[in-house]
Amino acid sequence: MNRKEDIALILLSGGKSTRMGMDKALLDIEGFSFIEKVVKVAGTAVNEILISSNNPVHDLKGALRVSDVKEGQGPLMGLYSCMKASQHSYFLILTCDSPLISEALIQFLLNAHKETYSVSMLTEGNKQYPLIAVYDRQCLATLEIYLNSGKRSVFGFLEKLKVQSIEVPPQFQAQVRNFNRPEDLKYLEKHV
């Protein structure tokens, strides 16, 4: 799947950053905030950019910030709220705390997605990345039912769908790394 006009980016940026102790979306990498860096890299592959966040400080030119329909419900509510705000058929899901992702990895994921699956997510051995993925719009009804039942688990939701696991090639493995704690930032100091 590689039809840019059918794809919207949903950038999940609404977390509380409790473990980091500061807003992860605003941390600096190569002169850009994490959120700016991910949008810059992913923006070329999509037709619309949606930022899932209740915080106006995450507003970016050329992107639509979407607040959660119901606050404090986790990443699935951000996903749901953004899907409801868009008419696109497919959604590239990324998180602001994975700022090392490249255009090449994004294209790899989009090209590997088979339309017979509701979700295509990256995996690395036994580790799964359900928030570095492609979601089909057809997930929306199932997601709404799941959320209305009071459930919030991303993996629990995926059990309801046909999911394609795509192994991250070795050359891209460092790019799926996320940064949740201050000590994680030492990796950036050494490798970026």
Overview of this protein structure:
This protein has 192 residues and is an alpha/beta fold. The protein has one domain: Spore Coat Polysaccharide Biosynthesis Protein SpsA, Chain A, CATH 3.90.550.10. Helices cover 27% and strands 23% of the residues. It has helices spanning 34-42, 75-85, 103-112, 139-148, 154-158, 185-191; strands at residues 7-12, 28-29, 32-33, 48-52, 64-66, 90-95, 119-124, 127-136, 163-167. β7 (119-124) and β8 form a beta hairpin. The radius of gyration is 15 Å and the shape is globular. The model has no long low-confidence stretch (mean pLDDT 90).
Summarize the structure.
This protein is α/β, with parallel strands linked by helices and 192 residues long.
Entry keywords:
seven-stranded mixed beta sheet, two-stranded antiparallel ribbon, 6 helices, Spore Coat Polysaccharide Biosynthesis Protein SpsA, Chain A, 9 strands, 23% strand, globular, 192 residues, alpha/beta, 27% helix
Number of strands: 9
Structural class of the secondary elements?
Answer: alpha/beta
**Per CATH, which architecture?**
Alpha-Beta Complex
Q: What is the CATH domain class?
A: Alpha Beta
Query: Which descriptor suits the 3D outline?
Result: globular
What summary fits the major beta sheet?
A: 7 strands, mixed
What pattern of helices and strands is seen along the backbone? EEEHEEHEHEEHHEH
Low-confidence stretches: none
Please work out how many helical segments DSSP would assign: 6
Beta content: 15-25%
Average pLDDT score: 90
- The domain tally reads 1
The separation of the N and C termini measures 31 Å
Give the proportion of residues in helices.
25-40%
Query: What oligomeric arrangement do these chains adopt?
Result: single chain
- Tell me the CATH topology: Spore Coat Polysaccharide Biosynthesis Protein SpsA, Chain A
The CATH H-level homologous superfamily: Spore Coat Polysaccharide Biosynthesis Protein SpsA, Chain A
Q: State Rg.
A: 15 Å
